Structure formats: C-alpha cells, structure tokens
Amino acid sequence: MKKVSIIGSTGSIGVNSLQVVSQLAKDFSVAGLTAYKNIDLLERQIKGFSPSVVAVKDDSAKVLKSRVNGRVEVLGQAGISRIATLPQTDIVVIATSGSCALIPLLAAIRAGKTIALANKEALVMAGSLIMSEAKRYKARIIPIDSEQSAIFQCLVGRERNEINKIYLTASGGPLKSLSKKQLSRVKVRDVLRHPRWKMGKKITVDSATLMNKGLEIIEAMWLFGVRPEDIEVLIHSQAIIHSMVEFIDGSIIAQLAVTDMRLPIQYALTYPQRRRSKLPPLDFIKLKQLTFEKPDYQKFPCLRLAYEVAKKGGSLPCVLNAANEIAVEAFLNGDLSFVQIYSTIKKVVSKHSPKQNPTLEEILTVDQWARDEARGIVNS
C-alpha cells in the first residue's frame, strides 16, 4: 500500500484526490493533509482518512487542535513542507493553486518523492530550478493538470527528440462568444460560470482570460523539454481531447476522456499502471462532433503576452505569474475590470529586465517586486 500526502486537500483537486484514494483504498492510504483555513472540511477529511499529521493556516491551528482532541498532530503553516517530506509518504499531491506551492514542491523534490503536480504556477515561476533539482534528487514529477497529463500519456515510451509539436487544447472559457466590447462589461459572476469545469475562483478567471493556457505553455516547456514555438493552443469547446502530440513522422497521438479531474489524478497516483475507473467511458455516438478554432489574441491578449514572456524566459515568467495573481485577486474583489487584468500584467512585465537562471532567492525577490508593482497599479 502506498501512502499519499496532499498539499491543499480542501480545494477541488484535493477533494477529487481523496475521492480517488477512497476508490482505491486497497492500494492507497493518507499520511498527511494540508489546508489553508477550511478547517470544517479538513476535520471531516481527518475523520474519513485518518492522516497522522495535518497543517493549516497559523490562526486556524489552535481551533482545529481543540476539535480533533489529539487524534492527529496539527501543525501551523510552517508544517506544510514537513508534510511534503514525511518519510512514510510515497506520493505527494501538490493540489494548491498559486505561488504558495513552490516551497513545499521543492521540499518534496529534495526529499526524492514522487510528485503528482496539479499546480502550474510553481513551474512558471521557477521551472529551471525545479527541473534541475528534480534531476539532482531523482524525484519524479507526474502532471495532474488535464492537459499536461494528456501530453504525458501521449509521450509514454517516446523520446523527446521525436516531438514535432504539442497541441494544448482549451475549452475557451465562459466568455469565448462575447465581443471585445462586451468583455469590458462582464461581472465576476459571469466569469465564474465555466461551461465545463468546476474549479477554484482564481483558475476559473485564468481560464476566462486564457492566461491559464499561457501558464500551461510555460509549464509544458519545462515538463517536456520543448520550445514555446513548438506549442500551439487550440480552442476545443467540447473539452474531450485534452491535448495532442504531433511527432516528426506526421503522426498525431491524442488523449481523449470525459471531463473529470479524477481521471488524470488516478493516472498520476497509479502510474505506470492503470486501474479500473468508476467513471463512464466516452460515448462517441453522443459526441457527434469535435471542433477546433484558433484563439482570438485580440480579445484575449493574455495568451499572446504569455507566449512573448515564454520566449524571453529567465525571471520574466515569474513576473507574469505574480502580476497575474494580484490582478486576478483585484478583479475578484471588484477593484479591476476584466480587461484591466491584462493591462495591469502588461505594465508590470514591461518594467522588468529578465535575469537568466535565477536562484530561489532571486525568484522570491522578483516575485515580491512584481506583486508590489501590480498592487501599486491597482491602487492607482
């Protein structure tokens, strides 16, 4: 039996990961869990999965300790990296969104763990550092993000020099059919109505701006050793083909599945084997058609900006990610309009001179600088 620790167990990926663990209870058990402040759900997860240790936001730890009454060790925020490195843990699921995943991810890598990675921001911030450390400590990174999992599956048994092109598919988000003028008037509630996925607020906004796909371009570069010009984004509204790989002989291999995150999560946990899933298979007769469109870079300029940043590289992707996190937060709080998300990010990116191969200390410094710059723009 393999033991799993989940960093971010109360988010959508974390909840789905625990559902997979529950369905494969003969093969997996839970060693540790972390959450931010949703201690009600975390308490239920503790009762259901009996981890030996959990970690939460510092001001929630005392309350949770009183509730669990010694049934589990409760740590504050500093304990997150400890849970990512527990000796008994075989697989660490990085299920949190945003830059906060970077430190526990690096901790898990340096402990030589197998990592099921659902977070793209850490690789965008520090892809060079993460991949070099993974190689140094012989840590395996298996992507959970549906598109990256699809590419990973298409590449099993293949060499990287056989790749000609990677096709990243995107549903197009909830605003795909709106005009540029209409986009300037959309409300938060409009943006959070994703047509295909039920996700956290931040990633749903990123899906609407197509920044999510921009971050995935940078993520795929590091995971699969390709250049940004080797990656093409396609709008695929049905969200059935999760991504495709074109090889140098002209053959294309695609990964198709129902739109359910439990599938890539299960594959990451059981790799290189597969287990029977309780999810329904695709019904091709009901599908009828699969359509593809080019992204509209005029309406969704965040994607174009991400391509430009990916080509320049260095510390610039870290700036892109940090500015995006602040801009999205400001939009959700009502301090920016939807179209101002892009203009805010663009202003911050244009102020930065990228440093190649930055150290962790330099990455964290650049990240903080970009956040301060973005907040200054929002406040003005």
Lateral strand order in the biggest sheet: 4-3-2-1-5-6-7
What is the H/E string? EHEHEHEHEHEHEHEHHHHEEEHHHHHH
Question: What class, by secondary structure content?
Answer: alpha/beta
Taken as a percent bin, the fraction of beta residues is 5-15%
Number-wise, the strands total: 11
Overall shape: it is globular
As for the number of domains, it is 3
C-alpha Rg (nearest Å): 20 Å
Main beta-sheet annotation: 7 strands, parallel
Query: How many H/I helices?
Result: 17
- Oligomeric category: single chain
N-to-C CA distance: 55 Å
Helix content: 40-55%
The low-confidence runs, each spanning 5 or more residues with pLDDT under 50, are: none
Mean pLDDT: 95
Describe the structure concisely.
With 380 residues, the protein is an alpha/beta fold. Helices cover 47% and strands 15% of the residues.
